[in-house]
Amino acid sequence: MLSVPARLCVRDARGFALSAPRPASGDLGKRRAERPRSFEEIPHTGSSGWVNLLRFWKEDRFRSLHNHMEQTFNALGPIYRERLGSQESVNIMLPADIGEMFRSEGLHPRRMTLQPWATHRETRKHSKGIFLKNGAEWRADRLLLNREVMMSSSVRRFLPLLDQVAQDFCALLRRRVGSSGHSLTLDPSPDLFRFALEASCHVLYGERIGLFSSSPSLESQRFIWAVERMLATTQPLLYLPSGLLLRLHAPLWTKHATAWDHIFSHAEARIQKGYQRLQSRKSSGESGQLPGNHGHSGGVLGQLMARGQLSLELIKANITELMAGGVDTTAVPLQFALYELARNPAVQETVRRQVRESWAQAGGDPLKALQGAPLLKGTVKETLRLYPVGITVQRYPVKDIVLQNYHIPAGTLVQACLYPLGRSREVFQDPHLFEPARWLKPASRDTGGAREGDVGVGVGFRSLAFGFGARQCVGRRIAENEMQLLLLHVSESWWGGDRAIGLYIQIPGVTETVKGFASGVNGLGVAVGLRRILVMVKMMLHFLCF
Ligand code: HEM
Question: Polar residues compositional bias: what residue ranges (predicted)?
Answer without folding.
Answer: 277-287
